[in-house]
């Protein structure tokens, strides 16, 4: 949604087409009312994507790991991580194949990806299915054969790597600030307190990066991924922002090794691997990247303090049940 909104504001001459599984949804209707053409398409159905992409000059595409993952988890699938990664990669390949059918018009294919944790960790961390799949899709795009006229999707592709969503503090249990039974206000996970985490107000700011990227021919970025983040904070600094805005003394506590794995059977171990990966290899896996300044992002990116001010945290800091 933020992509359509921000591109509408910054590139008013562009004709926008939004893809959705449900053009009758409220979100689709709101976009239609703003002049966006909303078309039905499903990432699992390549033909629907080919039709929806036809004649496009720019495509922004992302795949969602989490909703299918939680659906598999709650239906008791024996390996929700593996099946969700396989499905995400399959959708990403279909998006890429469909985009490659319109290379005669396409100048920008902006794909929301992430760095390859297997490669960055020298093969040590292999379990991060929610990241591995995106890296596999990027590899697939890189290797996709040229079209009959010799045009390659990779030549118009920009990888956009999104930072840690500020919305995680609201939407993901392990990231929520909370009041503990002993009365302390805490954020707690296995990250080292001094590890810098690039933060992004995803629901508002991804579109500012996509808008800026439309001003750059992909080849001018020389294959470097672009990171979408407005600020870089440690969790300790994030907790200090909560203290400042909410008026409670909120502290960050690093969880002891093994606690997350034990407390969330079935999913905690992968999250613990993810935090260990951040501790050892950094959020971007020590890869060379471009940032907001490099691509001249226009408009105000959301600071973390702004983000905290924009939301009501009272329910998170209420007494534990
Ligand atoms: N949390 C983080 O810190 C973080 C950081 C970096 C990257 N990410 C990645 O961000 C992704 C989630 O992003 P988000 O929260 O922005 O997702 P989201 O709000 O759930 O949006 C998902 C979008 O995908 C569309 N969609 C889903 N399945 C589809 C299908 N089969 N066919 C067509 N459209 C489909 C939905 O549209 P309709 O419902 O209208 O069809 C919706 O617009 C995850 O893959 C996650 O790994 C997260």
TrEMBL record:
Annotated InterPro entries: NAD(P)-bd_dom_sf (IPR036291), NmrA-like (IPR008030), NmrA-like_oxidored (IPR051164)
GO molecular function: oxidoreductase activity
Residues annotated as domain NmrA-like: 14-307
Lineage top rank: taxon: Eukaryota
Recorded GO CC terms: nucleus
Keyword terms: NADP, Oxidoreductase
Pfam families (UniProt xref): NmrA
Regions crossing the membrane: none
UniProt keyword NADP, yes or no: yes
Family: Belongs to the NmrA-type oxidoreductase family.
Protein's UniProt name: NmrA-like domain-containing protein
